[in-house]
Design goal:
Order of helices and strands: EEEHEEEHHHH
Strand order of the largest sheet: 3-4-6-5
Largest sheet: 4 strands, mixed
Strand content: 5-15%
Helix content: 25-40%
Number of strands: 6
Distance between the termini: 33 Å
Structural class: alpha/beta
């Protein structure tokens, strides 16, 4: 018989729980409410990108009270640094955005997604992935913002993400291999 600790509708530390819970680690001083929100957010992110669990290594979350940005992903250390405090919506969006960068940096299959995403967002096929005329015009940042829309099923106003790009990402998240082009309005899991 397993013992579960339940916080709201989220079971934490339950025997037989999915491996996704072990992929999110916390810095020692991470507040409990941020841990709970991050765990729930990681679960939603993991479900949206379930086809890529095998290529997503553990990531550590650091909450920083003095951080001037909303969040940043450090690929060399596999850390997400999140500026706290913030509203639940702000923190959840920042977590998903940075988790998307974690997936992008660690999952080789992400390279297969990029050409279709560039096309769906109206970029030229040779557009540099990590550079743009501004943050909002950088493909990598648009990918991370689109991931927020796919996971939260809410449309952001920060960056214009086209329907075709959202559908492509949602389909890629659920199916391994190279994503095909999807027709606008196609069913997404």
């Amino acid at each position: 018989m397993s013992v579960c600790i339940v916080a709201g509708l989220l079971a934490i530390g339950c025997g037989g729980a999915g491996k996704e819970a072990t992929k999110l680690r916390f810095a020692e001083n991470t507040p409990g409410d941020l841990r709970r929100l991050a765990t729930a957010t990681w679960s939603r992110f993991d479900a949206a990108f379930s086809a890529h669990r095998a290529c997503t290594p553990p990531v550590e979350l650091v909450g920083d009270w003095d951080f001037e940005n909303r969040g940043v992903y450090e690929p060399d250390t596999r850390k997400v640094i999140l500026g706290i405090p913030g509203t639940v919506a702000q923190l959840e969006s920042a977590l998903i955005h940075e988790f998307a960068h974690h997936l992008e940096f660690n999952c080789e299959a992400h390279l297969d997604l990029r050409p279709g995403f560039l096309d769906a967002q109206g970029f030229p096929e040779d557009a540099p992935w990590a550079h743009g005329t501004s943050w909002e015009a950088t493909p990598s940042e648009q990918w991370a913002e689109a991931a927020i829309e796919v996971v939260r099923r809410l449309y952001q106003r920060n960056v214009a993400i086209r329907l075709e790009a959202r559908e492509l990402i949602a389909a890629w998240g659920q199916a391994s291999g190279t994503p095909g082009r999807m027709a606008v309005g196609a069913q997404v899991p």
